[in-house]
Amino acid sequence: MQSTFRSVAIVGKYMDAIALQQMQSDLTHLARHLLSQGLQVFVEDQTAQFISHEGFQLASLNDIGSKVDLVIVMGGDGTMLSVGRALRHTGVPLIGINRGRLGFLTDLRTDQMLVEIDKILQGEYQLESRMLLQSVVTRAGKPIEQTFALNDVVIKSAFRLIELEVHVDGQFVSRQRSDGLILTTPTGTTAYALSAGGPIMHPDLDAISIVPISPHTLSYRPITVPAGSVIEVIVVHAADAQISYDGQGLYPLAVGDHVRIERAQQEIQLVHPQDYCYFDMLRNKLNWG
């Protein structure tokens, strides 16, 4: 059977040279195997420094999406989040090999990766779309920061309570004092929002969950709204407020700043093995009986 994918890219944990060195053998094994299948293989620049093989082509992370029709990411969920955001405009699908901790987004184990990847290359896979959030920070009426997130957008204070006002589609929801607020996609409900007491949402749901972090008034509870909603958060009082996206980017906020959060136009395409089951994944990762 002819392969579904003809050009493939490999991206390791490109921001961490120590991690790349630790996975050097697996990266080399993967590159050699893909080349032996007659595929056109690209490797991200930083990752390529730790592959002891020839025959592949180099590409920057920004260029990879326009050169291949599948990206294989070796790392943990953080690497998948970073690569997903970087390639959000391209629509190229991602498959993850878990070299992290929990691995909610990385399905394959290294000891099974070649067998599972061969199945995927022959068309035995599931393709799933995951929504993104985009947020815009406005100060004195001018946009000053725009970010995207696959998991969540978090507004918080590092050491003190922060006071925030929340509106959904122009309607006032609440004014609350807390350690912060998490705006999460269904994908992100198994991340920071889970530890803050938020609900787990199936990734097929079109929804955004608003989860307070340690609210001063315990009656403040998480609320889930349709994915088409426009959420506006106003910083009312804070000494050291900041906004982050997927836990990987940080920007300082000031009193009076408005943060607009809504669904992004782009989506991330994830490739799963044919027998992938979301509930099996939850049961295994969260140690449910």
Automatic annotation (TrEMBL):
GO molecular function, one term: NAD binding
Catalysed conversion reaction: NAD(+) + ATP = ADP + NADP(+) + H(+)
Residues reported to bind NAD(+): 77-78, 151-152, 177, 179, 190-195, 248
One CC-aspect GO term: cytoplasm
Gene3D superfamilies: Probable inorganic polyphosphate/atp-NAD kinase, domain 1, Probable inorganic polyphosphate/atp-NAD kinase, domain 2
Residue positions of the active site: 77 (proton acceptor)
The protein's Enzyme Commission number: 2.7.1.23
Cofactor(s) needed: a divalent metal cation
InterPro entries found in the cross-reference section: ATP-NAD_kinase_N (IPR017438), ATP-NAD_kinase_PpnK-typ_C (IPR017437), NAD/diacylglycerol_kinase_sf (IPR016064), NADK (IPR002504)
UniProtKB keywords: ATP-binding, Cytoplasm, Kinase, NAD, NADP, Nucleotide-binding, Transferase
Cellular compartments annotated: Cytoplasm
GO biological process: NAD+ metabolic process; NADP+ biosynthetic process
Enzyme class label: transferase
Cross-referenced SUPFAM superfamilies: NAD kinase/diacylglycerol kinase-like
Free-text function comment from the UniProt entry: Involved in the regulation of the intracellular balance of NAD and NADP, and is a key enzyme in the biosynthesis of NADP. Catalyzes specifically the phosphorylation on 2'-hydroxyl of the adenosine moiety of NAD to yield NADP.
Family (UniProt): Belongs to the NAD kinase family.
Family matches, as PANTHER family: NAD KINASE
Protein name (database record): NAD kinase
